[in-house]
Amino acid sequence: MSALWAPIGWGPERSERTAGARWLRAVPRVPTKLARFPFILVLIGVFGIGMAGLLMLNTTLQNQAFQFRTLNRQATLLAYDQAALQVQIDQLSAPSELARRASALGMRPNPRPGFLVVPGGKIIGKPEAVRGNEAPDLIVRTPAELAARQAAAEAKKRAAAEAKAAAQRAAAAEADQAAAQTAARQRVPGDQGTESGGNPGRN
Q1: pLDDT (tens digit, 9 = 90+) per residue, 142-200?
Q2: pLDDT (tens digit, 9 = 90+) per residue, 83-142?
């Protein structure tokens, strides 16, 4: 080889390096072993955290199920209440109920009403004042009014019966008095005849 093409590091310096490198050796790597006790502690911690998480998850699910049942029961009760209130609204908005409440307020049906046209102010019909006896069949009596009328009728019947009994008692008393007077009149002539018959004998 020519000096121009000699390999790099070839020469007396490399020979010295290779001679010194023979005394150097790679230190073998010591295998690292994980201690058993810390590993067991880590496993116990992981399992403990997992069990605690499962317990919390189970408790949360049970609470949510209990709340769901409670809310479902409340929704059912509210639905029943809504249905009952709707029935009451239907009953109160019935025409018969409106007529009854109007009669309770003192209102009476008007068979000859008048209608007012709002935009123009024109009156259709001939309105007349209601006296209250135009349509007695259309008046819906309230239970209180019916009870009051029944009580008044019973009181009237009771007063009529008492008046009749008093008249009968008065008639009986008058009859007794007339009988007593007639008996007294019948007794008076007999007594006078006896006295007149006795007096001549004494003379």
Answers
A1: 677 778 888 888 898 899 998 898 888 888 888 888 888 888 877 755 554 444 444 44
A2: 999 999 998 888 888 888 887 787 877 777 788 888 887 888 787 777 777 777 767 776
CA dist 102 and 142 (Å) reads 10
Sorted by sequence, the CB contacts under 8 Å of residue 50 that are 6+ apart come out as none
Q: Which residues contact 142 (CB under 8 A, 6 or more apart)?
A: 100, 103, 104
Are 103 and 142 a contacting pair, CB within 8 Å? yes
Q: What is the amino acid identity at position 156?
A: K
pLDDT at 17 over 70: no
pLDDT at 49 over 80: yes
From the CB of residue 24, how many other CB atoms can be counted at a distance below 10 Å?
A: 6
d(CA 64, CA 57): 11
The CA angle 68-70-75, to the nearest 5 degrees, is 90
Secondary structure (DSSP) of 42-108: HHHHHHHHHHHHHHHHHHHHHHHHHHHHHHHHHHHHHHHHHHHHHHHHHHHTSHHHHHHHHHHTT--
Tokens standing for 78? 């509210």
C-beta separation of 122 from 158 below 8 A: no
